[in-house]
Predict the 3D structure of the following.
Amino acid sequence: MRRTAVLGSAGTLLAGTLIAGAVAAPAAGADTGQQTKSSSSFQDRGGSEAYGVKVAADRAARQGISWKDCPADWGLAKPIQCGFVTVPLDYKKPHGKQITLAVDRIGNTGSKQDRQGSLLYNPGGPGGSGLRFPTRVTNKNAIWAGAAKAYDFVGFDPRGVGHSTPISCVDPQEYVKAPKADPVPDSEADKRAQRKLAAEYADGCAEKSGWMLPHMTTPNTARDLDVIRAALGDKKLNFVGVSYGTYLGAVYGTLFPSHVRRMVVDSVVDPSRDNIWYEANLNQDVAFQMRWNDWQDWVAKNDAVFHLGTTRAQIEAQWQKLRADAKKKPLGGVVGPAELISFFQGAPYYDSSWVPVAKALSAYAAGDPKPVIEAASPDMTDIQGNIADENGNAVYTAVECADAKWPTSWQKWDRDNTRLHQKYPFLTWSNAWMNLPCATWHTKQQTPVQVKTGRGLPPVLIVQSTRDAATPFQGAVELHKRFKGSSLIIEKDAGSHGVTNLVNPCINPRVEGYLLTGKAGPKESTCAPHATPKP
């Protein structure tokens, strides 16, 4: 799940000539995942869209993908290749308006006999680009080396994201401009101002991207995923989803259970209908406070390094002083409380942020504000980065607002968030304002898919840490119940978001083994946490 400029993932978006010696197609075989039958033999359990998916998938299977060198400004060097897949904007009208989705790949590093098909990846969001996934091969990421021998690593930008018919809600330079208003309201007037901003944001989305908004849903992205599968020539899907990518996987597995070959879901969204998405964000507020406290405890234990205090209360006092100072006078003229939250929330998100966030706070306490200013200030010269940030937030909002019905009563939002803020103040109001455009959304809001086990669904591997802030532990428990035959690996006493890209000798071999053999292991197992960051 996405927070401000932080993607909910374990990582951070034409013309060209065909690469000589492009990746060879796999030899036909029982377990390669190669497409041997018309994709129309499969059933989308999504009602009237089912026919549209069949049409689009059959068409994509015939057309394939024209793989070429990636455009220079995509930052994806050879031997990674790029291409596009065409899908219907509206699956109820498969012969109507079409949109294009950007995909990329790198071939398996093993032999033709080793190859088991394509492995697709979604890093989260909604709004995250998956195009960096093949760089795990070019960067020689040891965690994924075994899987890379067997699979082409395939990334894609979901509809509306990056190079896949991108949407926008506001001018990107205006979107990143700082300082923004303090998310924690001091008065009813502050709340009215934030409500006005949220409504204006919803208006901007409708004005700039209204033609796409009704179709920016997770079920449609799942249908797109099935068309990409067909275009790749794969009979069945191999998929790794992290954060929001787990909900995409859960919806895909529900709509297309017999299409799934291997599926790993890591850091899991609770797929319950009543959780998508209003309750999910309230639950995040509680979990973020827990993980923020974990970080404070770690900083306190390392007072010899950071000199911020030896108790959680002392670390919190340092944070509140910084926050109050920035509220009174934005640091460097641009870093106020809102910008501080955007930077400091990295600590409860990812263990890799623990040290840099602690160092920045330590420097400020010692009289040097420069590290905080440099880390939390927008870069107005990074035009492409700002476009990507605005686009990511637009997709996040569009998908979450369209996926489910949201409360329209401000009294409910106010009551729920006022109550939560009393015990869980770190993220509550910031989270509320980010999602409030959904209260005045301009297009129809759907009823979420009832995630469940369908005929043909193979064992799914679920990986989850117990102290995850962005996707609380209960989400994995719920999906484990709903997907019969699934296996749950629990990383105990850990909370870094996105487990499968961290070094953990208990978890990494299990994930690799599942992808290579399909054996998910015990129904439930517990692993010790990965190494705690060294200060």
User: Anything to note?
Assistant: The CA atoms of residues 62 and 231 lie 7 Å apart.
